[in-house]
Design goal:
Blueprint: H1 5-13, E1 26-31, H2 41-58, E2 62-65, H3 79-89, E3 94-97, E4 100-101, H4 107-120, E5 125-130, H5 137-144, H6 147-152, H7 154-165, E6 170-171, E7 174-175, E8 187-192, H8 195-203, E9 207-211, H9 220-229, E10 241-249, H10 253-273, E11 304-307, H11 309-323, E12 327-331, H12 337-351
Parallel strand pairs: 1-2, 1-12, 2-3, 3-5, 4-5, 5-8, 8-9, 9-10, 10-11, 10-12
Antiparallel strand pairs: 6-7
Helix pairs in contact: 2-3, 2-12, 3-4, 4-7, 8-9, 11-12
Amino acid sequence: MVANLSETFTESLGASTQDCFGEKFSLGVLDLVPRLNSASAEQALQQAVLLAQQAEAWGYTRYWTSEHHDMPELASASPEVLLSHIGAKTDTILLGSGAVLLPHYSPLKVAESFRLLASLYPGRIELGLGRAPGGGPHATMALSGNYLQHVSNLPAKLASLTELLEDRFTYEDVPVTARPVPEIPLSLWMLGTNVKSAVYAAKFGMGYVFGQFMSDSDGTQAVRRYREEFVPSAGLKEPEVMVALSAMCAATENDALRWSREIENQRQESREEHTNERDTNVGIVKANPQSFFVHKEDNEVKRHIAGTPEQVWQYIRQAGQRLNTNQILLVTAGPDYERRLESYRLLKSRMS
């Protein structure tokens, strides 16, 4: 049974939430802004604000939100707009994008938007970048045209963006500054699931977020390459790693498994309602219950973990030890907004 997971580490952990280096884990929220139970976009966005506020009150370090296009079940196509609103409704929690899909956009526009946020909310803004299309083929073409061509230009865009954020960018040998220039610089991250994204993060001196919830890989190869090839930048002198996990936490194992199945059933119904099927990559796999948790006798990587606070904590701890990090982003969809909040609350209570 999964419940035995907790027995494995009881002696070494006690009541501590410390990792193998004696440092406490930093927990963050990655919110895809789902429209649960056919909620309206307005309701989903109100719940995003509530989640950020509660996460701040419970002691979560950061709130990040994603970018998706023409996906009926999600309500966030513009992270910078949502973060601007949430910043006004919170006080201290770090705010970030998970992620801005840079192939679609001008580096100058991205730098200006996030420097504006960093000027509005000093010391709180984190710019996470991705290279996925973020939507179906027609939405992708409507957004920016030939996506494959844009992806091939990503290294040049990353170079321009880092130059803009370090105030050393020129166009035709004329300096161009991304304004406003905040007193406290924002931090820069690359999100991904493979070695290519890790190498980009290393080359340009960014932090790296491994998206475990979107990958069947354990992330060790990507993170190792990132650390081996890391080049210090003006914003980051040493490599910094986060891992993004999908988790559903409940008071009992059975409830967590049942809620996870409910989420998958809702997603399946949503896919069937729309002729253009899109995969949101929320990390929950289809109905086989063995896919929802880790057995005591194996260390198999899962896209989604469901269980009690102790069971989910053990999985987080394993992931942190495997990738040598104490920084975690949690994706929790929830069959409804109340149980989504309860999952985040229960887990943070266990780790406090």
